[in-house]
Design a protein that fits this description.
single chain, about 35% helix, four-stranded antiparallel beta sheet, alpha+beta
């Protein structure tokens, strides 16, 4: 998803990339605040809380270096 010129990943996809279970990532984000990640949150039509994490922050957490930082 694109928002404010950034690419955002669902928590499920971010968890898969980080090697975590989605529920584990949700729990860690709830218990420890944002866990160092910027979170984009909105409500769906049926009242669910949808949360997304920035793709570039996930890549950095995985050890990838962006071209702009080199």
């Amino acid at each position: 998803m694109l928002h404010s010129g950034r690419r955002w990943l669902t928590l499920g996809r971010a968890a898969r990339l980080l090697g975590l279970h989605p529920q584990t990532l949700r729990r860690r984000l709830d218990q420890q605040g944002a866990g160092g990640f910027e979170i984009f949150e909105r409500k769906s039509a049926n009242g669910k809380r949808l949360r997304y994490l920035r793709a570039d922050e996930i890549r950095r957490a995985m050890g990838h270096v962006d071209k702009e930082e080199q």
